[in-house]
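Final report, closing paragraph on structural work. Over the funding period we assembled a curated collection of sequence-structure pairs, and we close with a single example.
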Amino acid sequence: MKSSSELDNYTNKQLQSYVQSFIDNKIEESINLDYKSGDSLKKDDKGKKKELCKDVSAFANSNGGLIIYGIVEDGHIPKDYHYVNGGEINKEWIENVINTGIQRKIEGLRIYPVRFEDDPLKTVYLVNIPESDNAPHMYSDKRYYERQNFQSVPMEEYRVRNLYHKAQKSILDIDFPSLSHNLGSMKKETPREIESGGFFMFIRISNIGRVVEKDYKMEVIIPIELTPQREMKMWERDSRFKTKFLGKEKRTLSALGNNTIFPDEIHPVGNFFFQVSNPESQANCIITIRLYYGGGKKVLHLFLKDIFTRSYKPIPVIPRPNK
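Its predicted structure, as stored:
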């Protein structure tokens, strides 16, 4: 599905093609997609207004998504058009129903009217709802809704509490690591394919939440064959680092940060030097990056070859069975 930043620049003809693609490709309804026939929007029907607000708030309280008004479905598969009367139901009316029926306003919500054959009577509305940073959102019936499979359902009390708590927690993420032949200069371009040589790996983290974070720890677990020298450290100003060994095969470099990371800020945690001596055999060496912080934990497992090609392919790690 397209983001609002993409759809904002679409012409009416492009929007028509976009809507038609859902029917042509038989894209099934999901937790992020819902089809509604044209008669789902009616000015004199309070039940339809409630359904509109319930569905929109459910998407915002979940992972966001798209509601297409003007398509009839059969078994959750789009079948054909069942247009909205755009002469009676306009974009402003839909916005007003949503804004008056849902408490706290949903920032970033977009509504796109799509006119077929330049006829207002043949209108499809795309309602693009982001995952809200201000969740949970309540409908005027004093209930909270969320998206489950193909439905908008009332939220359990603990889920509402979790969403309120989520807004008070920091959210950190691990940026994709970058490489350089040099520590302080990028004069020599790093290759796009793995090759022999010495490289510095730079690791940064981002605060993608709305709360500042000052307590965090980064661990990088790397095979010994990439760091043969025993004295191996990560480095970054104002951070505390240490090295430890995990048996004979792996080494852990850890960094305990003490700099405050503000929302939308990208922070360098550290860098370390590693050596590639045999690209063919070392290509599938796994580097694990772990981030611990007040709001949770993030783990990233990457093949060394993918770091060179900048291919984001997290490796699923199967936990060992308990003996």
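The chain has two domains: 4-166, 172-309. The radius of gyration is 25 Å. We thank the funder for supporting this effort.
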